[in-house]
Amino acid sequence: MRTFDLTAIKARLTSGARDESGAAAIIFAMALVLLAPLTLGVFDIYIASNQRQKLQDALDAAALYAARSSAQTETDINEIGQRALKANLQSFTGSALITSSFKLDGAKVIGSAEMTPLALAAGFFQHGNVTATSEVLRAMDRLEVALVLDNTGSMAGTKLSTLKTAAKDLVDKLEAAGNRSTADDPIKISLVPFSSTVRVAHNVSVKNYNTSTHTGPDIPLWIDPQAKAHWAAGVDIFDVQHTDRFGVLKSMKGGQVWGGCVESRRPPYDVKDTAPFKSDMASYFVPYFAPDEPDDDEGYWSFANDYLNDGTNSSDWKTRQHRTAKYSNKTPSGGGPNEGCDLQPIKRLTTDMDGLKNAIDDMVASGTTDIPMGLVWGWHTLSPNAPFEDGAAYGAKNNRKIIILMTDGDNVNNTTAWYNYNGSYYGGRAYLWQGLLDGANEGSSGAARTQAMDNRLALLCENIKAKDIVLYTVRVEVRTGDSALLRNCATDPEKFYDVQYVSQLGAAFDAIAGSIDNLRITK
Known about the structure:
six-stranded mixed sheet; four-stranded antiparallel sheet
């Protein structure tokens, strides 16, 4: 029979309690068992957070891509979104996308996705899935866009051909943006080529013009053929009061036409979109008529636009130039009443993008630069007021008005040789002695004329922006002058593009097209 020595057992236990060999290893092992899951859990939290952000970024991009597509059905939207999500999603090895969907909710594309993240401590902790949602508002605004494009002589050659390509590409991009919209007629675009004037019609026949009522086929009612405001100011180009310019054209031989160009309105209407009203004839538009300038047979040097015999022996240049009777039954020889009216006509707001691009292709380079003349007509094409009344009402819901102004030069109104008593060449500002350019006259220097035009442009820009019209300005290869004028004209500095080389014009127009696209992530 085996017996136990209690004293020996007690001694052994006491000895064991005092023995410290291996204690650190035991403690470390026990701590490792407890700390490892906690450490791995911290990594899991980091990984899950990182994966959630990657999923959100990928879902945002996919929803935006689907919304910007031309897809109209939820099935197509979902298919496009799924492809984009898979292409953009960056995931850790061990994580997996469980579900994802892209749905149409009115004008919104709603994307959602769920995935299981990589979990290092899955055996110790319960991990939830990573989820993300994204909402993108498809374009709902109707856009009215005016392309106001410099067609002056300095644009000839590579500049104009590059402008045509860039402008047509811009039209395509805006049309594509319109196709992604849920609105009816979501995009309308107008075209305003300009030099020193603009052309609102194209070679209108005056054969059936009624000189009694001052009306005729294709003659707009907002035109004042008698230039009554000029007479009121004592500065008309004819010696017979209220001479009808279309009547003069009709009296001439050779089947004369009104080329379709117009003069600037008299200040202050030259920088406003006020509709013409009968109580102030200065609010009306006067048709372009370049008068026959004096012959050189009475000691005068040759004038720029001498196309008829003056029919008088008077030595007074103004008597010769203003003589109304000299036009009757005569045929012009060189130049003529439409001298300088060579532009492609304005294209009013339209949804016919092919027709618009054809008009862009037909643009020609001619004349000098009057930026406010082009810009105010760009405004007229968007305005709800006469002359065109094509634009939606100011402040109309879900409607945006945008002007894109492009020029390659500074404002110019050339001085003439000393023997030309007009002091300026006839153009969209008529003759400067007629008072259509506030702040300058026939005696002003070239620099003073430019400054006066710059001042009108600055005021015009402010008037346009006051109507909540978004204004982009593009300055191309202008090595002289101050860019501040066009920079300040734009809605904000980001909407001003100083293009140093014409080859960069397409990129500038691309940037503008992207800026106009109002798609945005809402959540």
